[in-house]
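Weekly sync, protein design subgroup
Attendees: M.S., D.O., the rotation student, P.L. (late)

Item 1: inverse folding check
M.S. brought a backbone from last month's batch and wanted to see whether the design step gives back something sensible before we order anything. D.O. pointed out we never logged the input encoding, so this time it goes straight into the notes. Structure tokens as presented (490 positions):
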């Protein structure tokens, strides 16, 4: 019941996020259908990738198109071109170079001149929306959503890496209605927005010792491997992160850097956020080890071990351990195995942090300076990201919110994949001096024994207080879906 309610709450949060302030790529509109002032011409909403521009001329009070109307269409600061006006009042200009998201279109009606009015009727400057806003030419997801699934290696400072399957979603949206300069930027240029919010839900499987060869990593193999997992196998762990970022250096204000047809605009922001992480089920995954005289000698030679593992110490009295608490009468059933279990938590692991985020937005074409020209197109690829965070994280500090945890994390598209494949990595480091733990040499049990068997000693152990890392590769699910839908349309 708790997991079901939590999933419903998460879904409601995501839908609420989408309703906050969707980017312009989702605000599709037909300008002519919404026209109130018929004394001016209107444009049908242009989209990225369009090669023609259409609209309607002015109309009189009865809705009749103005006879003899002549329309000149201008894209950005290029020379205006005459549009063909049809008898029904529609006009069209075809044969254009494909529009991009940073173009603006204007239509001027130059004839006949309105009586007693020296001002030329005009549509004003209309921005071009991204293709993903609903244009038939859309073949890629928006730059502000990412659905990633794949595999990652995860490990701690005292253990080797193990493999997980995961799926996660990244969502970005601007907050234009906030003060502090959030609403003073160009409403149609998303890279000029200063204030943003973001969500990042993630599910993952239990770590496994199995590994995947580097040569087999591609979108097909990852899709097949991920698809072979059951829902129960994947959803062993749930993580939810959310926060806000405030650009101190907006991408729209920075210069392009790159070469050839590949260019990048970068931005720097202050971030504030937090989240929760569910611990893995400890009872069903309790590791078991065999008891032997070598283990008893370890406890005789190291006085720090018995206080750490009291139940295990008592069982080793049957294997040569001579501690003061050893019973004089041996147990009826001699223990043969020890199982280590974590105590059940009543709360998810929590985290809170602030820090610096660098984002990298990708462009193609001929780009120069700080402004976007007609020959420079924004690519529909989720931006590359690098974070430096400082805060508290219970998953690092043994289940307690204590300072100070430093997190380094990054995610970038692999060149040449058009954003379909991404690599990412994270390192979670506690800003505290190193503490060497006593080594305990154990031999894994040859077979699993039920925990209620009297031959099994159940030893509770504290939560891990150590640094850990995550490194992996994933496929953008939205990119794969867009390719599939495009094939269906064709």
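Designed sequence read out in the meeting:
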């Amino acid at each position: 019941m708790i997991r079901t309610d939590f999933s419903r709450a998460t879904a409601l949060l995501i839908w609420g996020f989408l309703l906050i302030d969707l980017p312009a790529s989702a605000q599709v509109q037909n300008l002519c259908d919404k026209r109130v002032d018929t004394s001016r011409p209107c444009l049908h909403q242009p989209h990225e990738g369009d090669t023609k521009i259409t609209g309607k001329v002015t109309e009189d009070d009865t809705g009749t198109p103005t006879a003899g109307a002549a329309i000149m269409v201008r894209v950005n600061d290029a020379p205006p071109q005459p549009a063909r006006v049809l008898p029904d009042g529609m006009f069209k200009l075809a044969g254009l170079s494909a529009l991009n998201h940073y173009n603006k279109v204007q239509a001027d009606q130059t004839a006949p001149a309105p009586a007693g009015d020296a001002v030329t009727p005009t549509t004003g400057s209309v921005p071009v929306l991204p293709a993903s806003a609903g244009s038939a030419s859309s073949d890629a997801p928006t730059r502000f959503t990412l659905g990633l699934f794949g595999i990652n290696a995860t490990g701690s400072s005292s253990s080797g890496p193990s493999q997980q399957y995961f799926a996660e979603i990244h969502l970005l949206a601007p907050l234009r209605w906030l003060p502090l300069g959030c609403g003073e930027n160009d409403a149609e240029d998303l890279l000029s927005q200063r204030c943003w919010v973001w969500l990042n839900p993630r599910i993952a499987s239990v770590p496994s010792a199995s590994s995947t060869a580097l040569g087999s990593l591609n979108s097909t193999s990852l899709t097949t491997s991920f698809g072979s997992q059951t829902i129960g196998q994947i959803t062993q762990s749930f993580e939810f992160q959310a926060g806000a970022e405030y650009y101190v250096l907006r991408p729209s204000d920075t210069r392009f850097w790159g070469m050839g047809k590949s260019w990048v605009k970068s931005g720097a922001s202050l971030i504030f956020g937090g989240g929760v992480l569910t611990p893995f089920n400890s009872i069903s995954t309790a590791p078991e080890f065999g008891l032997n005289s070598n283990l008893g000698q370890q406890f005789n030679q190291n006085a720090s071990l018995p206080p750490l593992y009291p139940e295990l110490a008592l069982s080793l009295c049957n294997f040569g351990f001579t501690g003061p608490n050893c019973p004089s009468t041996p147990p009826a059933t001699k223990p043969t195995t020890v199982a280590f279990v974590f105590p059940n938590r009543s709360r998810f692991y929590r985290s809170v942090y602030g820090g610096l985020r660098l984002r990298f937005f990708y462009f193609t074409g001929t780009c120069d300076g700080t402004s976007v020209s007609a020959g420079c197109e924004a690519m529909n690829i989720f931006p590359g990201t690098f974070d430096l965070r400082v805060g508290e994280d219970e998953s690092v500090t043994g289940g307690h919110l204590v300072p100070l945890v430093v997190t380094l994390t990054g995610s970038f598209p692999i060149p040449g994949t058009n954003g379909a494949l991404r690599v990412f990595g994270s390192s979670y480091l506690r800003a505290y001096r190193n503490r060497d733990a006593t080594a305990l040499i154990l031999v894994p049990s040859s077979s699993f024994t039920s925990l209620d068997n009297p031959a099994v000693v159940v030893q509770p152990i504290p939560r891990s207080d150590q640094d850990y890392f995550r490194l992996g590769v994933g496929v953008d699910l939205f990119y794969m879906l867009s390719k599939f839908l495009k094939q269906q349309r064709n």
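Discussion: The first strand starts at residue 42 and ends at 43. Helices lie at 2-20, 219-227, 231-234, 293-301, 305-308, 310-315, 477-489.
Action: P.L. to compare against the previous round before Friday.
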